[in-house]
Write a structure and sequence with these properties.
With about 70 residues, the protein is α+β, with helices and mostly antiparallel strands. It is built from three helices and three strands; from the N terminus they run αβαββα. Helix content is about 30%, strand content about 20%.
Length: about 70
């Protein structure tokens, strides 16, 4: 994914979700990708927009590369 886009992937575990989103916001990230139990079971990634007033959306794991190309 990194070769095809200008995005940096940061794996962040160990804290609760609120703390992880706060860290992502502080880092000036534009998007947060959330993979919880429900998303994992459905093979989806929840995309949360941190810099735009847009609703979060679920993207199939198999479609995430195409999603990022459109950003």
């Amino acid at each position: 994914i990194r070769q095809q886009t200008n995005y940096q992937v940061v794996l962040n575990g160990g804290n609760n979700l609120a703390a992880q989103l706060k860290r992502a916001d502080k880092s000036k990230a534009e998007l947060a990708f959330i993979l919880g139990e429900e998303e994992f079971g459905n093979q989806e990634i929840l995309v949360k927009y941190l810099r735009q007033d847009l609703p979060q959306k679920k993207v199939k794991v198999t479609a995430i590369s195409e999603f990022l190309k459109r950003k």
